[in-house]
Amino acid sequence: MPGQKIMVNYARISRDFSALGVEPGQVVLLHSSLSSIGWVEGGEHTVVAALRESLGPHGTLAVPTGTSANSDTSPIYRAAVAGMSADEIAGHRSRMPAYAPASTPSNLMGVIAEHVRTLPGARRSAHPQTSFAAVGPHSAAIIDGHARDCLLGERSPLARLYEAGALVLLLGVGYDKCTAFHLAEYRYHPDPPRRSYRAVVDDGEGRAWCEFEDVHVDDSDFARLGADFERAVGVRCGPVGAARARLFPLTAAVDYAAAWFATNRAPHP
């Protein structure tokens, strides 16, 4: 029947990953939507298991595990407090939990990424808003050292993934979810636009607010950028279950995006 979801099992997903170009030993940054794949036997557990099997024991899988709900400078916060009184906002802020890498759930990253975060042996970066999690032999090198005043730049896992020659796997999602493009926002101009950020943290002395300044990250043009990137550079595309998947080098995406931003974004004085 038109629009009916297909049933997908482990063997089908494994074959699709292999046909797409996922191979043993690779480092992969995954962005994903479970529902796009179809009715998956075993859900997110099956998808992650099949992908890790394709990567083998020497491969590493990384995912974004951001927590924008603990920030009062994020769109999710502004939506939550819209229409609240001053007292209600104060109460909401008092209940916002401090970021804890080992236990704070991600926001809006999808159930596949959240499953990776909770895997035995997975590591998660310390940033209170834009953390990443990774599992595999390169996870420590990718995750450790994520500076608080560097959401997605040179002192974040994205830069380590760039150095590792990682691949980006967009699984049932579009280029608007491609965090690799954010690294290019730090590189396309010697002084990119900046702004202030705030988040709730606990550095061992109890719950507290922290504030820092960093590049003003903006994904509003990522879909257009991604379409141009795919036409210009070439991307491996194929199905994983019912989902459209794309696999491409992170370095190529960042380098192309840096040049694209320099041409297509308004000059920064």
UniProtKB/TrEMBL annotation:
Name recorded for this polypeptide: Aminoglycoside N(3)-acetyltransferase
Family, as annotated: Belongs to the antibiotic N-acetyltransferase family.
GO BP annotation list: response to antibiotic
Coiled-coil ranges per UniProt: none
UniProt keyword annotation of Transferase present: yes
Reactions performed catalytically: a 2-deoxystreptamine antibiotic + acetyl-CoA = an N(3)-acetyl-2-deoxystreptamine antibiotic + CoA + H(+)
Keywords: Acyltransferase, Antibiotic resistance, Transferase
EC numbers: 2.3.1.-
Superkingdom classification of source: Bacteria
UniProt keyword annotation of Zinc present: no
Signal peptide: none
Record-level Gene Ontology MF annotations: aminoglycoside 3-N-acetyltransferase activity
